[in-house]
Amino acid sequence: MPGGRPRTFDEDEALERAVEVFWRQGYEGTSITDLTTAMGVNKPSLYAVFGGKADLFRRVIAHYAEHDMAYARAAIAEPTALLVAQRFLRDNVVAVTLDDKPNGCLSIQGGVSCSAENQDVSQFLAASRLGGEKAFADRFRLAIEQGDLPADADADALARFLMVVSEGHAIHAAAGVPREALQKSATIAEQAFKAMTTQPTP
């Protein structure tokens, strides 16, 4: 800021640390002190740069979506609907079981259940997840238009199926289910997706 003291911390690094705190402790379980300690900033700096706790949380979710959820965008870019599903399911299993990250998914553990005063946080996270689901549904609608999926395929239901499986994997990963076990259920989901989207034999 002009005339102000220069920042003494890296903003992206501070956000990364905030991601981990919210991921491990959830929105309501995280205090401002937890954040300032992890991020290496004092309270005035946190409020000046990131706003309050709710503002920071939204920045954290955006950062998480851009970096930790990049695999979903890569999956959507695959050339066929089946490859989209396969890549997303496989990469999701890896993403929720990384050694250097908390197990599970920030968008689920961050605040699925909040008190009445923080319902806007739960609603914000739900809207974020639904945004991802819509992106997959749009991709499958394109696949239907291109003849890659049957004309009677339900793009919305297929997208919801992928999200339900991936969110279930995140919950199980947070509970300690190992990657190898989740990979098996992902394989079953891939087979189910293939069966649901196989073009009828002429």
How would you sum up this structure, described in words?
The protein contains ten helices and no strands. The chain has helices at 11-25, 32-39, 43-50, 53-67, 70-76, 81-95, 106-109, 119-145, 155-174, 179-197. It is 68% helix and 0% strand. Residues 1-6 have low confidence and may be disordered. By secondary structure, the chain is an all-alpha fold. α1 crosses α2 (32-39), α1 packs across α4 (53-67) and α6 (81-95) runs antiparallel to α10 (179-197). The protein is elongated and about 60 Å long.
Counting DSSP H or I runs of 4 or more residues, the number of helices is 10
List low-pLDDT spans: 1-6
- Which class best fits the helix and strand makeup? mainly alpha
Shape: elongated
Beta-strand percentage?
Answer: under 5%
Q: Calculate Rg over CA atoms.
A: 19 Å
What letter string, H or E per element, gives the SSE order?
Answer: HHHHHHHHHH
Q: What's the end-to-end separation, in Å?
A: 67 Å
The major beta sheet can be summarized as:
none
Share of residues in helices: 55-70%
Counting DSSP E segments of at least 2 residues, the number of strands comes to 0
Rounded mean pLDDT is 90
